[in-house]
Amino acid sequence: MNDRAERLLSITPCAYPLLSDTVHCGIDDADLRQTVRVCDPDKAISMSEIEVIKNKLDTIYKRKNKYCVCRPDQLKPCWFRFGFAFLRRMFPVETGVSNLYSREFCPANETLLSFKKSYALVHSTRETIINYGKNFARLLRERWLMGECDEDILFLILLKRPNQLVRKNALSYLPTGIMSQAPYIFASYGSLVQEKIDTFSSLINEFPINKKRLDPLQKIVEAENVNLENGYSLKVVTENLLEQFEATLSQTDEKYPSPNSRSHIPDWAMVVFIMCALLCLLMTIGLCLMRTSVRRGSPRSKPMDTTRRWKAGFVGGMWYDVCKNKIISL
After folding, report:
1. Would you say the C-alpha torsion 88, 92, 95, 99 has a positive or negative sign?
2. C-alpha–C-alpha distance, residues 49 and 43, integer Å
3. What integer pLDDT is reported at residue 205 of this predicted model?
4. Residue 67: which of 54, 81, 87 has the closest Cα?
5. What digits encode the pLDDT tens for the residues 263-285?
6. How far is CA 155 from CA 38, 95, 140, 187, 202, in A?
7. Cα–Cα distance between 240 and 234 in angstroms, integer?
8. Domain of life of the organism in this record (predicted)?
9. Nearest to 96 by CA among 81, 79, 113, 84
């Protein structure tokens, strides 16, 4: 991958390769591409680290072989789908990501390269970088289309975390250079996962009135980011991450089982459609009743003689009757 493309994908997820892009996704092993949803365009991680992810996912899917999230006839493995996107660095630049961007609209504008990335990074706060990374991961997940009913989970792993994401109370015996080089993980999950986690959180939360309820999955990610900062290897962290996600999602399945089938049509659209159908039915019944009442209220006149009815449509009909009477009298 050329230098310009590499720098652009570090700014915006719109330039990040899709899973189907086998040339730029950085995974040369064809078997790994078929079994693991991983992309490493910078080729910054080793194959052994990808093998750890593959083996862990194989173990999880063997345990969850009988559980299908979306529908029973789904192609197995049909539990929650995980994806991993690796990036050497991330450079937050204005308009690089946005809440308005989506899978349908995600511009990869090369004019972003004209911004001084180092200047943008230095003047960014911890909150802005976290929001940038979350939007980066969300757009990647939406573009990858891993799930069938929004049951997908994507981990965006920065191999070199920005200084703003280094905790102030980091272990003092670790040099600053090592801390700044530690990876950092962002997670994004589909609406089905979010619904299950929100329901699960409301059941276990002691203070449901509090609007800032802690997301159990996000707590796992934050804890593993602390472990990375404390010197844990990426292999150990990814294994722990998948294990804890499996345990939490299994608990949500027990408390909030997934439906056998899930439609992409939102609930509000179904409600509007049903209401419109009911209104049309009521209007049809009302019209039928009105026509029936009108027919009953109108008087029925006696039928007119066929000859007289035919003659009434002509101007000379009554003169014909006069002439006929005169002839008879003669």
Report:
1. positive
2. 12
3. 60
4. 81
5. 445 555 667 778 888 888 888 88
6. 10, 22, 10, 5, 24
7. 10
8. Eukaryota
9. 113
Identity at 306, one-letter amino acid code: T
* Residues in the chain, pLDDT under 70: 1-6, 110-123, 168-180, 203-214, 255-270, 294-330
Q: Give the tens place of pLDDT for each residue, 236-258.
A: 999 999 999 999 999 887 766 65
Label each residue of 233-268 as H, E or C.
CHHHHHHHHHHHHHHHHHHHHHHCCCCCCCCCCCHH
Structure token pair of residue 149: 């009913």
What's the token pair of residue 233? Answer: 């290897």
Nearest to 219 by CA among 251, 196, 199, 245: 245
Question: Of 182, 91, 86, whose CA–CA distance to 128 is shortest?
Answer: 91
Of 212, 217, 220, nearest in space to 197 by CA:
217
CB 80 within 8 A of CB 262: no
Selection from 316, 326, 39 nearest residue 157 by Cα: 39
* SS3 of 130-176: HHHHHHHHHHHHHHHCCCCCCCEEEEEEECCCCHHHCCCCCCCCCCH
Distance CA 35, CA 38 (A): 9
Burial group, residue 241, by CB count within 10 angstroms (0-12, 13-18, 19+): buried
Give every CB contact of residue 185 below 8 A, 6+ residues apart in sequence: 155, 156, 157, 158, 221, 224, 225, 228, 237, 241
Q: Which residue has the tokens 């078997």?
A: 31
Helix intervals (H) in the chain: 3-9, 30-35, 47-63, 117-122, 126-144, 176-180, 191-204, 216-229, 234-255, 267-297, 306-312, 317-329
Identity of residue 46: S
- Beta carbons within 10 angstroms of residue 98's beta carbon: 14
Q: How many CB atoms lie within 10 A of CB 74?
A: 16
Contact 142, 103 (CB under 8 A): yes
In terms of pTM, does the model score above 0.85? Answer: no
Single-letter residue type at 315: V
